[in-house]
Amino acid sequence: MKAPVRVAVTGAAGQIGYALLFRIASGEMLGKDQPVILQMLELPLEKAQAALKGVMMELEDCAFPLLAGMVGTSDPMVAFKDADYALLVGAMPRGPGMERKDLLLKNAEIFTVQGKALNAVASRNVKVLVVGNPANTNAYIAMKSAPDLPAKNFTAMLRLDHNRALSQLAAKAGVAVADIENLVVWGNHSPTMYPDYRFATAGGVSLKDKINDADWNANTFIPVVGKRGAAIIEARGLSSAASAANAAIDHMRDWALGTNGKWVTMGVPSDGSYGIPEGIIYGVPVTCANGEYTRVKDLPIDDFSRERMDKTLAELEEERAGVAHLL
Ligand code: NAD
Ligand code: LMR
């Protein structure tokens, strides 16, 4: 059996936390031979801490063979101590009458504190995934608050968007999700994201050629994927939780264990390629091997794509400008 690794999860008593922790403890994220110690962070509020205690009781009651230990805390310095993986799920939700700008500022405070704590106490190789919205900019804030950790270790979740795009594409093309390769969702985890299937294939056949429907792409595929989060909130009265947790598991599993050459989408700090300014956390196609992700480079960008990629970039630059004074 391998030595246990430490997995920190924030917002552990929330909806996504509840759909996530049991799957991590059962080995679905890091493998059935990898024991884990869960380090769970919640707000110091009595209600949040009581709910966290209940989640920990349930984890205990599962008697997971791979669960080598648990810590429940309201102190980020405890939650992130020696963490090998950190899933930053907890965030301030948008309240009534709250502007996007107010949400950004509130979350900037949270992710500054958490970035500093990661910087101080986490493993120097910690892999960080930010799920809490606005995920890309929160990841940017955490990265900037942790100057002693490699910037490449900070990522934002676009995997839910990638998975949503896979399902829409599979249904339209009449192919199996598992057969689709080379899909990407560029940019921000927001309605401006650009799901791009120009390179996608199934069984070696180009899906662009097979579907051959520019109107469906512009007026159905792109908006349906981009607005799916809002459609779930409308239908459920709550934001996506099981599918979000599933995407977080996919993202971390692939990063840790590899993708066997398959493309997946991760929000990662830009290296300047594709005209994305360095440091902006932007969804790009990557492959993963040996615990590292590598960007898929030199894809041709046509005018239609450039326009969409620039639009989602402009939004990210605006978000970055909105929090610049705090960093
Ligand atoms: P939730 O409100 O059910 O749970 C969030 C939990 O985080 C709560 O228990 C809260 O007490 C806790 N929390 C808040 N601030 C915290 C802090 N500073 N430290 C520790 N814990 C804190 O929300 P949820 O449905 O689990 O969603 C969590 C976040 O994930 C939201 O921001 C949501 O918008 C986002 N989300 C992102 C994606 C994505 O694809 N990136 C998808 C779905 C949801
Ligand atoms: C989602 O994509 O389901 C969420 O990010 C929606 C939200 O605003 O919480």
UniProtKB/TrEMBL annotation:
Keywords: NAD, Oxidoreductase, Tricarboxylic acid cycle. GO terms for biological process: malate metabolic process; tricarboxylic acid cycle. It comes from the Bacteria. NAD(+) binds at G11, A12, A13, G14, Q15, I16, G17, N107, Q114, V131, G132, N133. It catalyses: (S)-malate + NAD(+) = oxaloacetate + NADH + H(+). GO terms for molecular function: L-malate dehydrogenase (NAD+) activity. Residues 159-320 form the Lactate/malate dehydrogenase C-terminal domain. Residues 5-154 form the Lactate/malate dehydrogenase N-terminal domain. Signal peptide: none annotated. The keyword Hydrolase does not apply. Pfam families: Ldh_1_C, Ldh_1_N. The active site is at H189 (proton acceptor). Its EC number is 1.1.1.37. Substrate binds at R94, R100, N133, R164. NCBIfam families: MalateDH-SF1, PRK05442.1. Belongs to the LDH/MDH superfamily. MDH type 2 family. Catalyzes the reversible oxidation of malate to oxaloacetate. This is Malate dehydrogenase.
